[in-house]
Amino acid sequence: MREQGCDKEDDRKDLELYFHIPFCVRKCLYCDFLSAPGDEEAMRLYMEALFTETAGSAFRYMNYRVVSIFIGGGTPSLVPVSAMERLMETVRSNYHMAQDAEVTIEANPGTVTREGLERYGRAGINRLSIGLQSAEDGELAAIGRIHTWEQFKQAYAAARKAGFRNINVDIMSALPGQTLSGYRNTLECVLALDSPPEHISAYSLILEEGTPLYERYERGELKLPDEDTDREMYRETKECLEKAGYHRYEISNYAKKGYECRHNCGYWERRQYAGFGLGAASLVDNIRFQNGEDLAAYLADPMGSRKEIHPLSREEQMEEFLFLGLRLTEGVSFGKFRGLFGQEMEEIYGEVIRKNVRDGLLQIISRSGKDREGKKPLTGDRSRLALTEKGLDVSNYVMAQFLLD
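Request: output the structure for the sequence above.
Response:
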């Protein structure tokens, strides 16, 4: 087994690991993720392939230490607990893991038990992300969820009793038939849980082409909240959660102090990560690559599944630094940009920055406060560029302006 943790002198680079589990009980009506129902034999064969790929790829990451792991899907909690225990052992046996590594598994109500959750904890999984989406059973049925609010409460209570002290709950707004009062009820129900979650992810429903909900919408069969109600739900999220002691650290994510999702922050900060499993994406040494999405091919040759290898140009790295980093409410560092690219951010993006500062969509935060006018931006090593509250509302519009021709 590899030695856990690293000395201060250890010069290994940080690495995040992502494992994709593509199985679910039933695909939700809004979901366009790479997932589908699977029987026990399909799951067994898939996990064997995943163990092979994980162990067989370790030689590529000898000079890295694993600082976070995210097991996503699909519904990872649908897979037998013994397979998750073996996955964690495979990582520990083949990779250098930081002693304080954050290890998250996604779970859905109805697919977990207290015993299974306790075994997760003993295996080293220390963070749980539970998909609730809504506390209204009618709304859950409308989007094809397999659980009820009562089943969610049972799963949540079991997680607390099993010892989980870092739990995220996913909720969604702008659902079919959802009203502002109904959405407010979901927020209030989550906050009223015995020992409320440390982290809440709040997303607005996006209709993805090819999903059943999208097709119903195209046929005029789906009643969604209007744009004004959608914006009210958005504002309600921020006001309600901040009043309850959560701070918004990313466009769609709120956390109590110290419980920000370190793994997801790594994506937005362009930390290096390696993805394993069907369709899993990776970013290592400024090269993006992704596994293929053909299940039969992956099972036949998990070590040969890497596809779509794309070395990022310097311009693409700059673009990603901005449009990913600006998702974080603390923004991006002028000093880090200079250190990575050998140029001032204003040399490349000066016009875009000045325009959006004037429009009240971006702000420059310095040691001495905020230069709202943007006339004399203090772009020292500790200065940051961040979206304003107004900018967060139209973040896609702002971020698109940082794409270079």
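Residues 289 and 309 are 4 Å apart (CA to CA).
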